[in-house]
Every structure is written in structure tokens, then in C-alpha cells.
Write a structure and sequence with these properties.
The chain is built from 6 helices and 18 strands. By secondary structure, the protein is an alpha+beta fold. Strands 5-6-7-10-8-9 form a 6-stranded mixed β-sheet, covered by helices on one side. The longest helix is centred in the C-terminal third of the chain and has 23 residues.
């Protein structure tokens, strides 16, 4: 028998309450789930799936069966000695205190696997994959990107998760070369070829990040895919990346500004790497503080637009609730001043991680990505 919505809500509340009593240490996290389930669900039903959440391991406490770890990102150029297919190593160093693991949770059982060059974890509605490719001897990065993305898209479809939600890309020398020979533009072209070969008509583009890492690090691709289509969000202040004019390359970048993951618990927004770009032009060249302020404007407008699209009832003056931000900096010595600016604007409730990485445009000094509740 199909339970009525009120009955299902009552049952979920009972399970969460039991979980809180049994796992006292998970009280903070599971209470946040309980608060979200009490909010009116605003996303269209076609986008609904189970919950997906992220938090830092520095806040980690034991979690209940409703809060299963799907995978975790570990930061640092040196590979982890821990052999675990659910640990996704990002070969990028933190700036300042060592960055704690970033843990992504789901509220259904998790299974792990290795498929070819990909580490795989999956639950009822989501699949996470990770691969690291040694670039020694690689002479055609565009072809390599096409191959990696082709295999990634085939894998997600074969496993029944055809909708890419979020992708992270890291590789050294991102600004090497000029014009269409720049490595980032070669990456963009290779990715577009793979999408063109496999993606079906009407398929939405994922939120994405592409950051340059230090010499000698691998080409790393991590992704989350979903069984059901999610809702993409664009920023009215910015030209959609996939509509960039020819001056930014022979092929426009294949990503959305953000993707909203909707469940009966509420809406979580996954925001692409965001920088000081208005329209399609970079602003405040050589000024890290003004670039930070402009990036904040973009983030705030993007979230505000997403809340309007979803007709969110609980519009917050903050950018995100239960939010996590990654801040990529070209120059580590900007960190203290930028962190103060972000704290002044956002308060102390959001988690901030600072990483040393190169932005895809030479004239940009920083990029910020985020995930949180709206």
C-alpha cells in the first residue's frame, strides 16, 4: 500500500527521532535533516530524490543510518596511505591549516566498486566516481580529456545514473599555451566532444570546477551523477558559460552555474567555481579584494535567483545555510585578507577551505565554489 504523504512524513520523523536517541553524537547533523523535512517541499516532483549533503570532517561525529557516507575528498599533493575506494584524493594543497576531509553523505545504503580506472561509490539515487591519470608522456590533452569523459559518461549510464550533477577537474599547467592551444581550452574542447558523442538531446549540464594544480600532479576527475534529472540554475549577472563568445575558445565550456538537488528534505544547491566575471568579462584585474567582493555578489545573486526559481519560502539573507565553500587562490599570501572579507560578509557559520590552485583565466586570482541548503 502506498503511504499517504502525512503518514510517510510521520514515519520519517519517527525514524529520525529514534536515530537521534540511539546516536547522540549525530544530533547536530540529524537535527538539520529534521529541520529540512519540516519545511514545505518546493521543488517540482520530477526533481525529487533522496537527500545529499556535505560537511567537513573537522565537525565529524558518529552518524546514523540516515546519514551514510557516500565518499570523502581528501586534500593534499601527497597520496593518502589509506586504501579505500571511497576516499577521493585531490592533489591540491591547503593554504594555512591543513584542510579536513570533505564528506558527502546520502541517506540510503552505500556500495563501493572499482570499474576500470574509476573508483565508484553508489547509493539509491547517486553515483560518485573518481579517477587519477598520470600525465607523464601525454602529448594530446584534448584527446585524453575526450577519452576520460567518454568513459565517465558511459559508466554513469551503464550503472543507471545518467544525469551528471557535479564534476571537479584538476590538472597542472591549466594556463600553459596561448589562444586555442592553452591547456584549459584543450580540456574544454575535449570535454565537449565527449558530451557531443554521448549526451542525449535536452540533457542538462552539471555544475563544475576546473582548477590548475602544481607540476607533477595527475589529471583528476571526480563526479556525482544522479538517477533523476536535477534542476540547473544560471546567474542573471553572468553569461551562461555554454554561451561564451568565440574569444574564450573554439568551444564554449560545458557546465551550468549551479545545480539544485531536491528531496523531500529540502533543496541543496551545488555551485560551480565562481569568479569575478560579469557578463562574460573578467573584472578588477590584479585586485584580489575587489575580485573577492565581485565573486560574493555573483554567489549571492545566483542563490537569490535559485530561491526565486524554486519559490523558496525560507529566503535567508545569508548566501547559504549549512554551507561549505572552497576558495582557490593563485597566491597564498592573499589568504588572510580574503578570509576576513568573506567572514565579514558571511559570518562564521559557513565552512571555509582555502586551496592553492590556478583559475582557468590568467587574469583571475581566485575562484569560489559552494554547496549548501537554500
Amino acid at each position: 500500500m502506498v503511504l499517504a504523504w502525512k503518514q510517510l512524513l510521520s514515519l520519517l520523523m519517527l525514524v529520525i527521532s529514534t536515530a537521534e536517541n540511539s546516536y547522540h553524537g549525530s544530533e547536530y547533523y540529524c537535527k538539520s535533516i529534521q529541520e529540512r523535512i519540516q519545511r514545505k517541499m518546493t521543488a517540482p516532483e520530477k526533481y525529487l530524490q533522496t537527500d545529499l549533503a556535505v560537511r567537513q570532517a573537522s565537525d565529524e561525529l558518529p552518524v546514523s543510518d540516515l546519514c551514510n557516507e557516500l565518499f570523502r575528498f581528501r586534500f593534499g599533493k601527497e597520496a593518502s596511505a589509506e586504501a579505500d575506494t571511497s576516499i577521493f584524493q585531490l592533489h591540491i594543497d591547503s593554504i594555512g591549516p591543513h584542510a579536513a576531509d570533505e564528506i558527502w553523505f546520502a541517506n540510503s545504503s552505500v556500495r563501493t566498486d572499482v570499474v576500470g580506472k574509476f573508483m565508484v561509490t553508489e547509493c539509491d539515487d547517486y553515483l560518485a566516481v573518481h579517477t587519477e591519470i598520470d600525465l607523464t608522456g601525454v602529448t594530446n590533452f584534448k584527446d585524453l580529456t575526450t577519452q576520460v569523459y567518454h568513459e565517465l559518461l558511459q559508466l554513469t549510464r551503464q550503472r543507471g545514473y545518467p544525469n551528471l550533477v557535479r564534476v571537479w577537474n584538476y590538472f597542472p599547467g591549466i594556463n600553459t599555451g596561448y589562444g586555442d592551444h592553452e591547456l584549459y581550452r584543450q580540456f574544454t574542447a575535449g570535454r565537449a566532444i565527449a558530451y557531443g558523442e554521448i549526451a542525449h538531446e535536452g540533457e542538462v549540464l552539471p555544475a563544475a570546477t576546473a582548477i590548475g594544480t602544481d607540476e607533477g600532479t595527475p589529471f583528476t576527475v571526480s563526479a556525482i551523477a544522479a538517477r533523476n534529472q536535477c534542476q540547473t540554475i544560471e546567474n542573471p549577472r553572468q553569461t551562461s558559460a555554454y554561451k561564451y563568445p568565440r574569444e574564450y575558445g573554439s568551444v564554449s565550456p560545458s557546465f551550468s552555474r549551479a545545480v539544485v538537488v531536491a528531496s523531500p528534505f529540502g533543496n541543496r544547491i551545488l555551485i560551480s567555481g565562481t569568479a569575478s566575471i560579469v557578463g562574460h568579462q573578467s573584472l578588477h584585474l590584479n585586485d584580489p579584494m575587489q575580485q573577492t567582493i565581485e565573486t560574493l555578489r555573483n554567489l549571492k545573486d545566483l542563490v537569490r535567483h535559485a530561491q526565486g526559481e524554486l519559490q523558496a519560502r525560507n529566503v535567508d539573507t545569508k548566501i547559504l545555510r549549512n554551507g561549505n565553500l572552497r576558495v582557490y587562490l593563485r597566491e597564498p599570501n592573499y589568504r588572510a585578507e580574503i578570509e576576513q572579507t568573506l567572514r565579514d560578509a558571511l559570518g562564521d557559520s559557513l565552512s571555509l577551505v582555502f586551496l592553492r590552485g590556478d583559475v582557468c583565466r590568467r587574469d583571475l586570482l581566485l575562484e569560489i565554489e559552494a554547496a549548501g541548503d537554500i
